[in-house]
Amino acid sequence: MKIALVAALVSSAAAFAPNAQPPVQTALSAESDRRAFLGAAAAIGAAAAIPASAVAKVDYENIAYLGGGSVVDLNNANVRAYLRLPGMYPGAAGKIVSHGPYKTVADVYNIPGLTAGEKEVIKKYESRFTTKEPSPEYVIDRINNGLYR
Predict the structure, then answer these.
(1) pLDDT tens sequence across 46-59
(2) What DSSP element (H or E) covers 145?
(3) Mean pLDDT for the chain overall
(4) What 3-state DSSP class applies to 1?
(5) How many Cβ atoms from other residues are within 10 Å of residue 79's Cβ?
(6) Surface-to-core class of residue 102, CB atoms within 10 Å of its CB (0-12 exposed, 13-18 middle, 19+ buried)
(7) Contact in structure between 143 and 97 (CB atoms under 8 Å)
(8) How many whole angstroms separate alpha carbon 51 and alpha carbon 78?
(9) How many angstroms separate the CA atoms of 76 and 15, rounded?
(10) Phi-psi bin for 99: left (phi > 0), alpha (psi -120 to 50), beta?
(11) Which domains does the chain have, with CATH numbers?
(12) Nearest-angstrom CA–CA distance, 17 and 112
């Protein structure tokens, strides 16, 4: 932005520099000079009006609970996170990710249609589950994250 301002000042100052021979001014060249000046001024004004970029959320503080560690977040982890827990995938895992959000780990047992075998498997791994605040960036991909291999 500073460079654009300096360039505009230098170009406008050059208009006042003495020339060895005054240019012949016609109505057509005067109009094009005016348009060039107004175009440059508009570009500088537009550059000044552009807001500063927003700070993006780069790191998710609960990334370790999405399936890469020993503890799985019931509200944000993808269905593939349950592959590491034998017996959970696809039955119980599919039901967990298609319901929720869960306030506590015990809320998982209230899923409609959960069989006795699925409840036993969930009970087996209950200590490895946690419930974090649902994050829209991860909740949207809980059922299908597009990874097929």
Answers:
(1) 555 566 555 555 67
(2) none
(3) 79
(4) coil
(5) 21
(6) buried
(7) yes
(8) 36
(9) 63
(10) beta
(11) 1-12+27-50 (no CATH), 63-139 (1.10.150.320)
(12) 84
Using CA atoms, how far apart are residues 8 and 4, in angstroms rounded to an integer? 6
Cα–Cα dist 149/146, whole Å: 9
pTM of the predicted protein model: 0.59
- The residues of the chain scoring below 50 in pLDDT are none
* Tokens matching residue 86: 């034998």
Q: How crowded is residue 139: how many other Cβ atoms within 10 Å of its Cβ?
A: 15
Angle, alpha carbons 5-10-11 (nearest 5°): 100
Amino acid at 96: I
